[in-house]
Structures are given as structure tokens and as C-alpha cells.
Design a protein that fits this description.
Blueprint: E1 8-11, H1 21-25, E2 31-42, E3 45-58, H2 67-71, E4 77-80, E5 87-91
Antiparallel strand pairs: 1-4, 2-3, 3-5
Bound molecules: iron/sulfur cluster (2 copies).
């Protein structure tokens, strides 16, 4: 049986900056994420950055259009040949 190289989406959590571009690009709103802001002091400067807590893909409505993969500037989403679950959910500190 032929393998479909675009059977599902794969998240690379370490690359995700929670920029929300994929969330806004998805035409059917099947992506969701939660993130929190962390503020650090670097010498005299305060730096703030978002950290990903949860990323979800609802495959019941995903059309596999690939807009989210194409728009991600950080290569945090890519195609996978693995069969998709109904709902993919990654959580910080979780097993996924
Ligand atoms: S492949 Fe298309 S429909 Fe599926 S999550 Fe990405 S943008 Fe949304
Ligand atoms: S576009 Fe990429 S970096 Fe931005 S939230 Fe989506 S997966 Fe994360």
C-alpha cells in the first residue's frame, strides 16, 4: 500500500514561538494553542517571550490544505505520513 507523505501534521514544539500565524491562517479554525508570557531581566533590560503550553489540531475539520505548514516561519509544523488521530493535543510537560 502506498504511503501518504501528507497523512497528518507534526508539531515540533521546541520550534514553536506561539506566534499564532498558523491559527489565523487556518480556514476552518481547527488549530488551537495556549501560551504564557515569561518576563526575564537581562542586565538593565526586561525581555518578554511567549512559551507554548498546549497545541491542538482537530482532524474532524482539518482539510489538509497545508496553509499552516506553509505559513509557519519557524518550521514548527511539517507533514507526516503517520495516520492522524481524531484530535491531536500536545501539552507542555505531557507525554505527547
Ligand atoms: S492543514 Fe489546513 S485545515 Fe488543517 S490545520 Fe492546517 S490550515 Fe487548518
Ligand atoms: S505558525 Fe509556527 S511558530 Fe507560529 S504558532 Fe503556528 S506552529 Fe507555532
Amino acid at each position: 500500500m502506498a504511503v501518504n507523505p501528507r497523512a497528518s501534521l507534526e508539531l515540533i514544539p521546541d520550534n514553536c514561538t506561539s506566534c499564532m500565524l498558523c491559527i489565523r491562517a487556518c480556514p476552518v479554525w481547527c488549530l488551537g494553542l495556549d501560551a504564557h508570557l515569561e518576563v526575564t531581566q537581562d542586565g538593565g533590560r526586561r525581555r518578554s517571550s511567549l512559551h507554548l503550553d498546549r497545541f491542538a489540531i482537530d482532524y474532524r475539520t482539518c482539510m489538509m490544505c497545508g496553509l499552516c505548514v506553509d505559513i509557519c516561519p519557524f518550521d514548527a509544523l511539517r507533514w507526516s505520513d503517520g495516520l492522524p488521530p481524531v484530535q491531536f493535543e500536545w501539552e507542555h510537560g505531557g507525554s505527547g
